[in-house]
Design a protein that fits this description.
It comes from Congzhengia minquanensis. This protein has 292 residues and is α+β, with helices and mostly antiparallel strands. It contains 4 helices and 13 strands.
Length: 292
């Protein structure tokens, strides 16, 4: 597809960018680490033991069993893109074109796709805590959140560190669910940022599906909602339950002098990644999805 670049006739120090939210899942990138150096898969040791029994003064301690098996985590997603901008096009846009394109690409495409893939991967993982329900309203959303917390508590998921991701379409509903008394405040902020010690992250609805399709970039690019996908109303994640692995995430920039093929700035981006829910910690993910 050919580039479409309008050259500057009058310079104003403003770039008309497309609004895009940054990554919603980035805050969980450092929750747990796995080193994929030299391989495309990692084996994680899962250990379980048996519980207590009665001590006998005749025979001593009751015997117990220890089970240790290896859980395999294998990277599956390898994505990339290349852009080129002519030296003169960049010069005649006062040096703004190349920098604007690369930055906008990360916001418009990389962050949304990463979020959508990760949420879909967690939501589709077998045996995570899941509830199917109709679209939530201001009268039902609080009860749904409390039930999610109860289910995670029952499964002894650590309370500390849980994160509540809410579909941005439900932002007005959760605000309406709680009554507030306003005084003579000069500024009013009705947005809820925390619920029962869980920080709230509002996720754009276009990134919050139970399944997505990653396009190959030949006839279409980025991602689409999968045909069978449902919208996610909210998701609670204990970050220690998931692994967001980026083995290789590298932008490469070549100046026109370095580019031997054409007199152009060249930008190449490659991302090799995947996301996982640990087998022993599936209760650390609670998914509330819409039936519609």
């Amino acid at each position: 597809m050919a580039n479409s670049i309008t050259l500057a006739q009058k310079f104003l120090p403003v770039i008309d960018e497309t609004y895009k939210a940054a990554s919603a899942t980035a805050l969980m990138d450092t929750a747990s680490q796995a080193d994929f150096t030299g391989a495309n898969e990692v084996k994680v040791l899962k250990v379980s033991t048996t519980g207590l029994g009665d001590y006998s003064r005749t025979t001593g301690y009751p015997k117990g069993d220890v089970t240790a098996v290896w859980e395999t985590l294998k990277l599956t997603e390898e994505r990339g893109k290349e852009f080129s901008i002519d030296r003169m096009d960049d010069e005649e846009t006062l040096g703004l074109a190349f920098g604007a394109v690369t930055g906008q690409f990360m916001r418009d495409w990389v962050c949304p796709e990463l979020d959508a893939y990760r949420f879909a991967k967690y939501a589709s993982t077998e045996d995570v805590l899941t509830t199917d329900a109709a679209v939530l309203t201001k009268d039902t959303i609080v009860a749904a959140l409390d039930e999610a917390v109860r289910a995670m508590d029952e499964n002894e998921v650590p309370e500390d560190g849980r994160i509540l991701f809410i579909n941005s379409e439900l932002k007005p509903k959760i605000n309406e669910a709680f009554s507030r008394t306003w005084g003579s405040d000069a500024a009013i902020n009705s947005l809820l940022f925390n619920y029962n010690n869980m920080p709230i992250v509002y996720v754009p609805k276009s990134r919050f599906y139970t399944a997505v399709t990653l396009n190959d970039g030949t006839t279409d690019w980025g991602y689409d909602k999968a045909t069978s996908a449902k919208s996610i109303n909210f998701m609670i994640v204990q970050p220690s339950a998931v692994l967001q692995a980026k083995k290789f995430c590298m932008p490469k920039i070549f100046s026109p002098d370095e580019n031997q093929a054409m007199d152009m700035w060249k930008f190449q981006f490659r991302l090799y990644h995947d996301s996982f829910v640990y087998d022993n910690k599936k209760a650390g993910v609670y998914v509330h999805k819409s039936t519609t």
